[in-house]
Write a structure and sequence with these properties.
alpha/beta; four-stranded mixed sheet; disordered N terminus
């Protein structure tokens, strides 16, 4: 089960439905599978190992079994690491030593720039296998080296929305219809905070407007093309308008006590969802699964989903599948990656765990286009996320995006939990970041 703050994304299962799917949310749990080294026999049977982190949804969608039926001579085994922060250092070690690599390996979007810049020569060029034009325009660019080599095929993206407790909004005297909520925050995240102040005035006892100011911060930054680096590869996070806007809004939320001050994906955070003390969560597509799984049956139908604040689309999260050159079966591995990231298979994963496809061809499939989420009052997530995905700006990525984001998020948590003054928290964040990036 993927629970990882790295790159701002976690994964848990969220059942989606169309008119032909059962109107119920599935609580799915991920697992780690032991895997043998790749092998082949005299009859031409081979085993491909896929290494990934958390929950990519392939097991839940039964895709490896389906692939074996299509290719009886190929058996796919998945080796999953629960936390990406444990997975990535191991991947780098394997790349540096040239041993222990799987045939197919997952790469988080917060790491892709560093891998492209420093490790591209160690991966198979997938541009000879996939058509990069099949993905949303900016997705495959993230995995493309300067020489045109494409080292990863996009698995998913994280278009933004706002998840909110409809029942708590009603009790606080706020609009609760998803269109009305979207209208209330149409001016941007500043409007979101104003709505939070209104909520606080009549908040049901023991509840908070938002779970985490750092989550809101990530949502704000994710809506901008310029985030932590400029196009020349220079770290500009100290002067980035989106970073400053997100930081100032987070500091305001903390000072006005609009947040419960919970670091996402921690035990305290999951406990708050289970208890029902959180009224809103900044909600990239994959977050709905986190909420439904942790909130449980008691709150089914009480959550809803509205368009994200503001008029600028945002993306938070997304991963890639890559094929190391060191593998014994790179051709077969590349074909597996092509199949796993094709529209039909991305749609199957979307149905199984709720992560949104990055392959544009999936958006016209009925299972995506008309998808609703029963747990969230049958929110039309296929429409909400597809509309968002089409206008997401092409973000400039940097090699240490994940490190910068996580370090800033930690200091935002300190403002919330410890009452650290914004100036002191910012100083601590920048000093820690500069030690890492130089």
């Amino acid at each position: 089960m993927r629970i990882t703050p790295t790159g701002g994304r976690g994964r848990r299962a969220a059942a989606v439905t169309t008119s032909v799917l059962a109107a119920s949310a599935l609580l799915l749990t991920g697992c780690s599978n032991d895997s043998n080294s790749d092998s082949s026999d005299s009859n031409g049977n081979i085993t491909l190992k896929v290494a990934d982190f958390g929950q990519f949804g392939y097991k839940e969608a039964d895709l490896f079994a389906k692939y074996h039926k299509l290719h009886p001579n190929i058996t796919v085994k998945e080796e999953t690491t629960a936390n990406e922060q444990d997975y990535y250092p191991k991947l780098l070690q394997q790349l540096n030593t040239g041993s222990g690599l799987a045939d197919v390996t997952g790469i988080e979007v917060g790491r892709i720039k560093e891998v492209v810049d420093t490790q591209a020569a160690k991966f198979t060029d997938l541009s000879k296998t996939i058509d990069v034009n099949d993905w949303v325009s900016w997705k495959e660019k993230q995995a493309t080296a300067k020489d045109g080599t494409v080292i990863g095929a996009g698995t998913d993206i994280g278009p933004m929305s706002l998840c909110y407790r409809k029942d708590l909004f009603q009790k606080a005297g706020l609009p609760s219809d998803r269109d009305a909520v979207a209208k209330a925050v149409a001016g941007g995240w500043e409007d979101y905070l104003k709505l939070g102040e209104q909520y606080k005035k009549k908040a049901p006892s023991g509840t908070y407007f938002m779970d985490s100011a750092s989550a809101m911060y990530n949502a704000v930054v994710s809506s901008s093309a310029q985030q932590y680096y400029d196009a020349d590869g220079k770290a500009i996070y100290k002067d980035s308008p989106s970073v400053q806007q997100g930081w100032n809004l987070a500091a305001e939320a903390a000072s006005k006590k609009l947040t419960q001050g919970l670091a996402q994906f921690t035990d305290a955070w999951t406990a708050a969802l289970r208890k029902g003390s959180v009224a809103t969560v900044a909600c990239p597509a994959w977050m709905a699964g986190q909420i439904s799984t942790n909130s449980g049956d008691a709150f089914k139908g009480k959550w809803d989903i509205a368009k994200a604040p503001g008029t600028t689309a945002a993306n938070w999260g997304g991963s890639f599948l890559a094929v190391p050159k060191s593998g014994k079966h790179t051709k077969e591995a590349a074909e597996l990656v092509k199949w796993l990231t094709a529209p039909e298979q991305q749609a199957e994963v979307f149905k199984a765990i709720g992560v949104f496809p990055s392959n544009k061809g999936a958006y016209d499939l009925a299972s995506v286009k008309t998808a609703t989420l029963p747990y969230f009052n049958n929110a039309p997530i296929g429409q909400i996320y597809a509309d968002e995905a089409k206008s997401i700006p092409e973000a400039v990525l940097g090699p240490k995006d994940a490190t910068i984001k996580d370090t800033i998020s930690t200091q935002i948590n300190n403002m919330e939990q410890r009452g650290t003054k914004p100036a002191d928290a910012w100083k601590a964040a920048t000093e820690a970041i500069d030690k890492v990036i130089g």
